[in-house]
TrEMBL record:
It comes from Streptomyces mutomycini. Gene3D superfamilies: 1.20.5.1930, Histidine kinase-like ATPase, C-terminal domain. Residues 212-277 form the Signal transduction histidine kinase subgroup 3 dimerisation and phosphoacceptor domain. GO terms for molecular function: kinase activity. PANTHER family: NITRATE/NITRITE SENSOR PROTEIN NARX-RELATED, NITRATE_NITRITE SENSOR PROTEIN NARQ. Keywords: ATP-binding, Kinase, Membrane, Nucleotide-binding, Phosphoprotein, Transferase, Transmembrane, Transmembrane helix, Two-component regulatory system. The keyword Transferase applies. SUPFAM superfamilies: ATPase domain of HSP90 chaperone/DNA topoisomerase II/histidine kinase. It comes from the Bacteria. The chain crosses the membrane at residues 12-38, 50-70, 103-136, 156-184. The keyword Transmembrane helix applies. This is histidine kinase. InterPro entries: HATPase_C_sf (IPR036890), Sensor_HK_TwoCompSys (IPR050482), Sig_transdc_His_kin_sub3_dim/P (IPR011712).
Length: 418
């Protein structure tokens, strides 16, 4: 009984009746077309003419299903009334021919089944109730519309009539339940996402993950470097607080400069959260570049020897910004793992092949402790280089030096040289 008259069955029945209501304008146009071939005939009383009008109505409904708004409206109705789980049906207007054709198929199926079930819903219940009242109402029997003239001479007709009426109502409910199940079963394939829709969703998800990864790299490199530098300088100042006030004053000045610069970088990174993807990945995206390298090297907390070949100031902004972050992360690693003798040798070369970066720092005499959750910096360097079509490597050398190298093309893959 639940399958025939439960809540889901009733909602699907309502959905079919809505389909029948949507069919009516097309059916009326169909009757006009059929009537033009039979002047003076009563089209509504001829079953053959009604079936012909129904056949004319379905192609017109299919054309309507090609309109963009049909899919979101149909999906909302199917989701609410057919019991379709969330996420199975596509949202938004169809953007491909395949999606529009599928929507037209769904709309045609909906109005076709809805028209049949709506017609049965209007015609069968009054007839079934009349049959059930036939043995109990003289007025119904005398009307001769539900029973043959000799019904009174055959009592078994009167005995069977109530059961026949109940059977008709049960058959109507079964037909409605079956038609609703057909619609619910076809909804995922006709209103669900096409391969193009799934690809678009995957691309949007990938773009969102790329934004998150970029923000994570920016925060890791700027804030992580600043905290490493400030921690080292504060620790050194604490150790000589009483014996070397001049060094303490210099360390505090360096801490102040580092924090001021980092606050500005943090504001720029957080500002990216309020921008769309085109701005976030554009060449004018905020963030320091190689023109701010002198300030970074002066306040990084360790001695750095720097040599440049070519013209780093002419490097495209996007490449210059990533190169700055790679240098910053390399210095952070030298700070964290270099111990008391931490220093770095930095060389940047710019030529027609691209930008080359090499940073050497001495390996500590004792292996540094591994921080829980650490190890993302070198992976971030490799990701930055790969996004520009370049490469980065790092590792220890036999001469006791940790070397970081990166090669970045001056133009992104597929971008024409200007």
């Amino acid at each position: 009984m639940t399958l025939l008259l439960g809540r889901r069955a009733r909602l699907r029945w309502l959905h079919l009746i809505i389909g029948g209501a949507l069919l009516m304008p097309y059916f009326l146009v169909g009757t006009v077309i059929v009537g033009s071939f039979h002047p003076g005939a009563d089209v509504f009383s001829a079953p053959a003419d009604q079936l012909t009008a129904f056949a004319f109505a379905l192609p017109m409904a299919a054309v309507t299903g090609l309109f963009p708004l049909v899919r979101p409206l149909s999906a909302s109705a199917a989701r609410a009334l057919c019991g379709i789980p969330a996420g199975v049906l596509a949202d938004g207007r169809p953007k491909t021919r395949q999606a529009r054709v599928r929507t037209a198929g769904w709309f045609t199926l909906h109005v076709a089944l809805g028209g049949v079930i709506s017609g049965l819903t209007l015609a069968l219940p009054p007839f079934a109730v009349g049959l059930m009242m036939l043995p109990f109402s003289r007025t119904v029997r005398e009307s001769r519309t539900l029973a043959p003239p000799d019904a009174l001479d055959r009592p078994w007709i009167l005995a069977v009539a109530p059961f026949a009426g109940l059977a008709m109502l049960a058959a109507l409910a079964a037909c409605a339940a079956a038609a609703g199940a057909v619609l619910a079963g076809r909804a995922p394939s006709l209103l669900g996402p096409t391969p193009e829709d799934r690809l678009a969703v995957a691309e949007r998800r990938a773009a969102g993950l790329a934004v998150r990864n970029r923000l994570a790299r920016e925060l890791h490199d700027s804030v992580g470097h600043a905290l490493s530098a400030v921690t080292l300088q504060a620790g050194a100042a604490r150790r000589v607080l009483d014996s070397d006030p001049a060094f303490v004053r210099e360390a505090l000045t360096a801490i102040e400069g580092t924090t001021r610069r980092t606050v500005g970088e943090l504001d720029a990174v957080l500002g990216m959260l309020r921008q769309d993807e085109d701005h976030a990945y554009g060449d004018e995206a905020p963030g320091p570049a190689l023109d701010a390298l002198d300030g970074l090297l002066a306040h990084c907390g360790i001695p750095v020897s720097y040599a440049a070949e070519g013209e780093p100031e002419l490097v495209p902004r996007a490449v210059s910004r990533e190169a700055y972050r790679i240098v910053q992360e390399g210095l952070s690693n030298a700070l964290r793992h270099g111990g008391s003798g931490a220093r770095a040798d930095l060389r940047i070369t710019v030529d027609e092949r691209g930008l080359g970066l090499t940073m050497d720092s001495p390996l500590p005499a004792r292996k540094a402790a591994v921080r829980p959750g650490g190890g993302r910096g070198l992976r971030g360097i490799a990701e930055r280089a790969a996004l520009l079509g370049g490469s980065a490597q790092s590792g220890p050398r036999p001469d006791g030096v940790w070397r970081l190298t990166a090669r970045l093309p001056l133009h992104r893959p597929g971008q024409e040289h200007r």
